[in-house]
Structures are given as C-alpha cells and as structure tokens.
Prior knowledge:
The complex is a heterodimer of chains A (about 775) and B (about 210).
Chain A: H1 11-26, H2 36-56, H3 62-66, H4 77-92, H5 102-123, H6 125-137, H7 146-178, H8 185-198, H9 211-239, H10 242-263, H11 266-281, H12 285-297, H13 301-312, H14 318-341, H15 349-353, H16 370-391, H17 396-411, H18 426-438, H19 452-461, H20 465-481, H21 488-501, H22 508-532, H23 568-581, E1 595-600, E2 610-615, H24 616-624, E3 630-632, H25 633-640, H26 644-656, E4 660-663, E5 676-679, E6 689-691, H27 700-730, E7 732-734, H28 735-746, H29 754-766, E8 770-773, E9 777-780
Parallel strand pairs in A: 2-6
Antiparallel strand pairs in A: 1-2, 3-5, 4-5, 7-9, 8-9
Chain B: H1 10-19, E1 27-28, H2 30-40, H3 47-55, E2 64-65, H4 66-75, H5 81-95, H6 99-112, E3 121-122, H7 124-135, H8 145-159, E4 163-164, H9 165-179, H10 197-208
Antiparallel strand pairs in B: 1-2, 3-4
Helix pairs in contact in B: 3-5, 3-6, 6-9, 7-8, 8-10
Amino acid sequence: MSQSFPVASDLNATWSFIQPGLEFILGAQGDQGVTSKMYMNCYTAIYNYCVNKSRHGSANTPVSAVSGNNSYSLAGAEIYAKLDEYLVQFITSLKKDPLESFLEFYVKRWTRFTIGAGYMNNVFDYMNRYWVQKERSDGRRDVFDVNTLSLLKWKSHLFNNNADRLIDEVLDQIEKQRNNEIVDSNYISTAIKSLVYLGIDIQDLKKPNLVVYIKHFEHKFLQKTAEYYSKESAKFLSQHNVVDYMKKCDTRLSEEVSRSNNYLDNHTKKFLLETLNTVLIKDHAQAMYDQFLRLLEQDEIEHIQIMYKLLARVPSTLQPLADTLEKYIKDEASKAIEEIKNPSEDIEDLSKQSADGKTSKRTTAGLVSPKSYIHTLISIYIKFNDIVTVAINKDPIFIKSLDNACRYFVNKNSIAIPTPKSNCKTPDLLARYADGFLKATSRESDIIGMTPDNLMIIFKFIDDKDAFEEHYRRLLAKRLINNNTKSDELEESIIQKLQEENSLEYTSKMTKMFQDMKSSEDLKVNVREELSQTDNQVKDFTPLILAQSMWPFKHLDDYKLKLAPELMPSFDKVQEIYNKKHTGRQLQWLWNHGKSEVKANLSRKGKPPFLFTVSNVQLMILLAFNKSNTYSFKELFDTVGVAKHTFEAHLLPFTKYKLIDQNPPGAECFSKDDTKFTIVEEYKSKKLRVNFVSSIKTEQKQEEENTNKEIDESRRNYLSACIVRIMKARKQMKHNELVNDVATQSLSRFRAKIIDIKRVIDYLIEKEYLRRIDNDTYEYLA
Amino acid sequence: MNSKPLKIDAKLNAIYDKYKDSNNENKIDINGTIAYLEDLDFDPEHPISLTLAFFLEAPSMGVFTKEKFLYKWQKDRINSLSGMRDFILKLHNSLETNDSLFQELYNFTFGFLMEVPGQRLLNYELAVDYWKLLLMNKKEFEPCYTRLEQWFDFIMNEYKRGLSNDTWKMFFLFIKTIALKDPSNFEDYDEMSAWPSVIDEYIEYLKENKLLN
C-alpha cells in the first residue's frame, strides 16, 4: 500500500487505495488480519474523501438531488455504492471446502465475516456518522450503517439461498444430540445466533427482531421436536411401563430445558415447553390415568408425586386425575365400611386395636361401635390426606376432590344410611364416639386413639350439623347430670372447637348448660348450708336447675311423683332459696332424671349397710318400706304416684334381684292390685354396692324418635325464619333464587332438601306470609 | 260497588221472594237453594249446579245473596225460571270451549267450598269430589283421566291433608301445562321449578309405584 494518500476528491483512487485493506479486514486473505497501520490508512482515506466531497458538494450525486436545497451536502453515496457492490462480490465469492459440511462452512465464514464487519464499520465511521445518519434522518430506509449493510448483504446473498439447507443441518445436529451422539454444539449455537442477528428491522435498526429466527428456524424446530418426541414416547410406552415412561419424561424435559437455555432464543422456550408438554404429557395422559389407580392401590407415593408433577405442567390434564382420586376414595371408603359391617378373619388394624378382649363391642346384631365406625372413616381420610399433602403438593383441585369424597362417604355409606329413606346416622355415631372418650366411666383401654381431633375432622364433613348438635347435647346432658364427665376442661375445649368450626350460635345451648351446672353448684352449697342447720336427714343433696329450652329434657306426665315426707324439707328448701333469687320462675321437677344413693340396713348383723343406687321412683318405693314391711301393689302404686307402666318398670328390678318379695309370685300376678310386696329382712348380695337403675327398661327407641322429631321441627323453624328474613329484605323473589339462597344459608347447619324448603314455602303461603305472583315468584306480605 | 242500582223486574223479585230465607231476607239458604234447583230441574250433584253458583257468585255452598241474585239476572233481563234454565244451560255448554271462563269457574270453586270464616285449607276429600266434578267431565282433560285418577288416589290415600288455595290453583296450571302436554312422561316437569311440594310428592309417588319413569 502506498504511503501517500490518494487525492481526496477522486473516488476511484480512494477506493483502490482502501480495497486491499478491506480484503484483510473481511478475511479474504485467510486468517491474516489487518494491521493497525493498514486500518488507520483506510480510515484516513475514507475520512479525507468524505470531508473533501462534503465541502465541495457534488452536483451529480443523486443525494444532492434529493436534498437539493442544501447548499452544504454530505458525501458518501458513491463510496457507499462501491462498498455495497464490493460486499456482494466478496460474499458471493465465498466457497465451501468440499470436506466441510455446509454448516461448518457457514459458521466459520460467518464468524470471520461478522468480526470483519465490525471493523469495517469503524473504518467507515465518518461516513456512518454523517452521511448515513443524515440519509436515514431524511427518511431513507435503504441506507444503513456499514455493519448492518454487511449483515443485510450476507443475508440476501448467502443466507437466503441456503436457509433450508442450513436449518436442516442444524436440526440434524440437534436430533443427533437428542440421540446422544456427540456433536459440536458450537456450530448449532452460532448458526442459530446468526439468525437472530440477521433479523433486521429496516425501519428501526435498534429494535430487536426475530423474524428470520422464527420464520426459518423456530417453526421447523418445534415441528421436528414434536415429531421426534411423539415417535419416541409412543415407542417407549409400547416397550416400558408408565412409571419408567414418567421418569424418562422427566429426564427429557430437563435436557430440553438446558438445550433451550444453551442455544435457543428465549422466545422459543415457552413454545418448546408447550410442544413437549403436549407430546410427552397431554397425548399420553390417559396412560397415566390408567396407571394412577394402580399406584393408588399400591400406595406408591413417590410415583404418584412424579405423575402429579408431570401432569401439573398441563393444568387441563389434572381434573380427570382428581376425579379418579375422588372416585377411588369413595370406593375405598365403601369397601372399608362393608368390612367393619361383616368382620372377617383379617380385619384391618384399627379394629384390631380394640381386639383386646373387647371386640364384642361390635354386637352380633351387625351394629358397629361408634369407635370402629369413626376410626374407619378417619383412616380413609388420613390416608388420602397424606397422599394429597405429600405427593400432590396440596393442589387445590385435589383438596377439593378429597373434601368431596370425604363429605360423600361420611354422610352416605351403608352404615350411615341403611335404608334409602333413613336419616343419616353419622351425627349420632359421632356424638356417641365423643361420649365414649368424654365419659368418666369409660375404660382407658376402650378409648385408645379416640381424640377430639378425630371428632373435629369428621364433624367438618358432616352435612347434618344440627343433628350432631342434638345428639351431642343429649349425651352431654346425661354426662353432666350424672356427674360423669372426665374433665371439664376437655368438655369446654370441644365446645370451643365446635364453636370455632361453626358458630357461636351453634354451641349456645351447650354453653348455657355449662352455666347452669355452675350456678347449680352455688345453689347446692347454699341449700346444703341451710339444711345443715336443721335436723333434716337428707343433707347430701344436689339440686340442678336446668333451663328448659336448653336442655334436651322434657317434663313427662308419666313421672308425676309423690315425694316421700323424708324428702320434703330438702325439696322445699330448694324451692324457697331459688324463688328468693328468681321470682316468677317456675320450677318443674324432672323425676325421670337423676339418681339417688340409699344406705340400706338390710345386712347381716355386724356387716356394713348396703349402698343402693336407685332412680327417684325407686327411691320413693324404698322409702315407703321405712313405715311398713308389706304393701299391696295398689297401696304402693298410690304412694309413689307415677304412671302405672313407669311404676312397674321401676319396681321390677327389686323383685328380680330379690330385694322385695312378691306374693303370689309370677309375672302374671305382678301388677294385680292385691299382690303383696314385702321387703326382705336380710338382703343377700355379695356386693355391697348394688345398682338397680341399670336394669330399668327404658324406651330407647322412643328417645331416638323424639330426637329426630326435634331435629325436623327445628329445621322447619330454621327454614321458615330464613325464608321470612330473606323475603322481608327482598320483598319479591323468584322461586329458584329463593331456594338457592335458603339452601346456601342453611349449609352451616344442615343440607336442606328442596322438598323441605318447598314445604315451608307452602306453609308460609298458606299462612299468608307470602303470596305467589306470576306462578314462580313470591311476594312478602307484611 | 261500581254497579248502578238497576231497576228490578217485578217478576224477578217474585222469584227471589219465593226462595228467600224466612229469617234473613237478604239471602237464599240451603232449603231455598234446593227448591230453586228443583224448580230449574237441575240435579244438585251435577256440574251445572256449580255453574249456576258460579254465575250467581254464591259465597258458599247452598247460599245465594239477594244482591247478586237480582243484579245478575236483571242485568241479563231474565225474569223467568225457564229463561234462567236456558241461560245456565247455554253458559254451561260454553265452558267446554271458553278456556278463560272455565279457569274463572275453577278458581271460584275453592272459595265457594270454604265453610267457615278464616278457613284456609280445603278438606282433601271435598277437593277430590270437586276436581272430579270439574275436570273429569270435561273433554279437554280426557288424555289425563288416568293421571287424574292417580292424583285422587294419592290425595286420598297418601297425602290426606288439607289443600291451600295456592295448591288448588297451581294444580290446574300443572294439568294444563305439564300433564296435558305429555300425559305419559310429564316431560316438561322440573322439580326445581316452583310447583307446590304436594305436586313434587305426587311425582315421587308415581315413580315409587312405577307409574312414571
């Protein structure tokens, strides 16, 4: 290269001067690069040319024609055209070596070319900064800085004609890599990156543009990927089991993610994953659903977890899995229920726990003990709750399925609903379950594993919360008045839990019952204090004042008892003290509840007296014998005063256990008016404590009926209050809307049947609280 | 009262006086009614007697008020027993084709059957008698006769409770819109819609007895 610079105004001279330098820059001379001197010379020559031309202007350039009004115009158009021509000629002269693949050829040349283009851009810096910039800001979109021009020329003269060939080779390499063959990923990566560089928006050069990448590569890549994996997965599944397949998927997915991180544009990642999810997961979801049942049967938590994670990538595939789970839980529960109904040789562990000589809790009549029933329900819940928690990540869809299934089997199983029309027995059984571990008299060994937590789990799933309240309250009442609670704290903590789970209102009656017990305690202290100052015989006396509507007790006409004179002072004292405190309240005595202990001096000489536990009716019978040793049936009956069948039921245990002799004997004479009853002189019993209460025949069935009747009635009241409240606010309402609102509002207490809601609506129409307008709309009548 | 006082024909007045209650001249009581029906040659058990009561807006069974009796007949300028008979026969025949008039008669019947003031429920046996009278004599309901018989059985043997005016009216709607349309399947019946509970129970009863799918 000559030391002296060409005449600045001479284009051809200038070009001849710089061209050899450009050859070096672009790599036409092999690896030999440009020297800094050469580089400086080129830069200077171009600078001189542009500066000189600009100063003098140039009448015959198309540029000045465009910007003709400018007295001062920039030079560059001609040398730019030269460069353009040169680049085309350079690029088209590049030839592939027969030994190299097209990909190798492309990547090698591209790498060298882009370096050169960068240098060249600097060499033409002056032109870039003035002429190019001016042209572009004047609105020309076919003039570019030299780097961009180089890339565009590369694109149009090398890439465009060979795009398919190039991409096919890239995809080939990727497939080889997927087949675990060793490939030089550098080639793949560079070729793909070149596509990003070639995406040039000629309107806005700074805006990244993936047109070339997407059009030439991404579409084909995704298509190939789908083909590859759909073939592979089908083949794999035909030769392997689903679990292996899921593991394979896992591997494949992570491989593809790292591939996409390594050399794909970010844009593709989302689509790649979508494609993979479809081909690997969605298309084979059915196979996984089929396997899911087997995994559940074999309790394969880990594999369930893998399956869930895979399917979770395609959220739409989860619902069928959740449905499968729901159905499976229901089936398992119903099997478990059948098993405890018909205990076979190998009963599952929960019932074995109670097998310590007490298995007969399950009576021969096919009745199931509350414990074994509730624990069966709990075991199902716990098992599947664990699966949902551990393997399924507490996915809300699955939690819902678990809840649905639990609510279903807790309320509808062959023990809960033995006949289609019977009321659900679960609330009753659950209340008795609670009674089991709350009663002071239960044996520790019988109540192993019975906990308030279990109670609360099942409570949550019960539809008929009101029925549970009714049953629970009845048993609570019995525990309280019979002084049979294990711990007040425990009792209160359960009330607290029920309240938190449901409402303050739900537990209000029970809370009041506890209050009654506390204030009765005060009354008792008061009464006893005053009685101790008299010469009354009965001092050890515990009156309970129970609010009528809160306690599940009814005053029964059958129990109109005549109080023995010995008891009158105590009885009067209670009335007196209570009435002093609360004027105007009426006390009714519930003689059918409560027990007494009687010391009976019927022992052999020198032995301690007997201690009899008796009912109030029985107490009056025994006290009568203080006056006389023998009564006729009629005399005794008149003394005691209750209904005849009640009297008989309470008298019977005495003759049965030979405390009282009957003459003439025999069941047929038992209730004849003149049959004589004589108390024995000396009672023969090995035990000093004798309980005559437990053998009184009670009307169990009657009580159950009463409970159900009360539940029905309180439901009707609840529904009608609910309807009136809603209608009062809304004035007019469509039938369906009203029914829905009522059903929703009553959900926390019970699941209202539509027919029950309708009956109450009918009743309210009949009573003219509501009126029907337009056949399906109701109006509130004030 | 929007009715202007009409001048009452003397002959009409005479007819009224013939049947009026001797203790209360403002009404015709049960004895007068029986005599009146006899003179008209109407069988009290026949639906035509109900049509007469409907026309004269009888407040309850066996009673006509003076006001309505004179007003209604005078308005149509009828002042003879034979004229009355012809008129009622014609009216009765028109019920077969005049739907809205029949519906009025049907709705009238519930109040007509109330026996004591403040009564809200119609005795179910009486209800069945009048359903038979009203519906089983009308050609229109012939496709439903079997269903109606089943309804009567259900009311008499299962339901056995009084029926409200709402139920009375809604049952008619049920027959017209559901039962007549598809007597064998009740296809348009929807338990979610606003039918009174007794109709739902009837459907349930039919299903339990395999009379409906």
